Structures are given as structure tokens and as C-alpha cells.
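#struct-help
A.M.: can someone run this one for me? Single chain, 270 residues.
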Amino acid sequence: MKKYQIVFILFLFLFPLSESGTPAQDQRLYVPLLFKEYCTRGLVFSAFGDSITSCYFDSKMENFPSCGYPQRVYARLTSQFKKEYAFYNNGIGGEITSSGLARFEETINNPVLYCVNPDHPDRPGDCLYPPKISNHILDLVVIMEGTNDLNAGTPYDLIEANLRTMVQIAHQQGLKAIIATISPVTGANRELTARRIAEFNPRIWQIGNDYQIPVADIYTAFLNYPNWENILISEDGLHPNDQGFEIMAEAFYPTILSHMSPSGCFLSFY
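D.P.: on it. C-alpha cells below:
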């Protein structure tokens, strides 16, 4: 079959004609619809952040990297879909966004370079879970960082610039990104930090809007939970407890699904 015949048949398939011989507007099938459900495989994501990401105060912290919100997101994926999923836990306790930015590109290109086991910070840990999968190429990076900056009084503009640059780098490296709002804190000695978190989170929404990436609204998910101060936060007033990590996973899950097909495959197209 000649090339022009193939092109004509494809045109008819995409743009069926009405009885008048013109494309039928109500029947037109656009090209993106043909590929919307196409996907390659399951998902491998990097959870990038600080001690909240690396499971501090999780009762299963000793199981690192299978702990915290990354493990709970993974559990939801594997429960709902019959595909292969995995994640890297690239959280580092105490990290500020400037330090995160300094390692960000290197981390997403080679996630095992910054595998820090919280129980053994003196030596690298294995941050890939499950450790043996057939394909561990990174698809998506989930960014949740800024708590330590806000606690330390770092200027808002600098925190925002660091987060924006992380998203830009992810896109330049061909990765999709999700960004999360900062979870609330509680306690008499954290009132200033609590106020700064509330003031800064709208900037994260603006980053999501500017780069057209999903925002996991951890902050609102916590505030909407009755008695969150006593139920979702650990005794230090800063880190989520087990139930808090569950709420985080519930907030992250729909944003991750936005990068996947209804059958649970990563959408590598867009």
C-alpha cells in the first residue's frame, strides 16, 4: 500500500466524514485520545525531602526504606493494581532546601548516591524498595521540603527559589514532578514556625500552578482531620506519627494517580 493511501485511511479513522463529506464534528477522534490509555509499565518514584520523608518517628522506621508515607503510597498502588511498583526514599534528616538543591540533580540521576539510613547515618543505606525489581529507572520525583527552612527563619523567597529550581531540573531531566505543601506543626514553642508554614504554603500552590504539576496538599489534609494536633503529630510537635503518615499517603495518592492510566501504568507521554 502506498504511503498516501495509508495517510488517507488514517485521516478517515481520526476524522470520520458526515453525510455531506465534511469531517463530522461530533464524531471527531483526536489523536491524544488514541494514546491516553497507552502506558509502558508500573511506576518508580523518588520521595525527596527531609526527615519527614525518611520516616522519623514512624514506628516502622527500622524497616527503612519501607516506612513513612512512601511505603504507604507503595502499598496503595500494589493493592489497587497488579503491576510492578517501586520507590527510592531519598529523604535526609535535618536538610534545608539549599542543601536539597545542591544534591537534587545528582540524586534524581542516580538515586542510590544519597541513600541515608536514619538508623545508621554513618553509612549509606539501601533506599530502593523493593530491592529487587526488573526495572528501577526513575519516572517521577515527589518533592516535600521546607520545614527546616521555615523553622530556622530562612527567607521565603530563597525557599521558593530552591523549590522552583528543583522542579525545573526534574523537567529538564525528563522526569515528572509532584510538590507537597508543608505539614503543620504544633506546640507552644513552635508557634512562629506554625505561622511561617501557613504563610509559605500558598507559594507552593503557585509553584504547582506555574509549572502545571500536581500539588499534594498535606497541610490541609492535616488541618481537616479532627484533633490533628494530638492524633497525627508525634510528641515533638513536628513529625507525623503513624496515623499522620497514613494521612500523608492519602493526600499523595491521587496526585500520583494523575500521572497514571486507569489500569495503573505510568503515563510516559504526558
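A.M.: thanks! Confidence is low (pLDDT under 50) at residues 1-15, 17-38.
D.P.: also worth noting: The longest strand covers residues 44-49.
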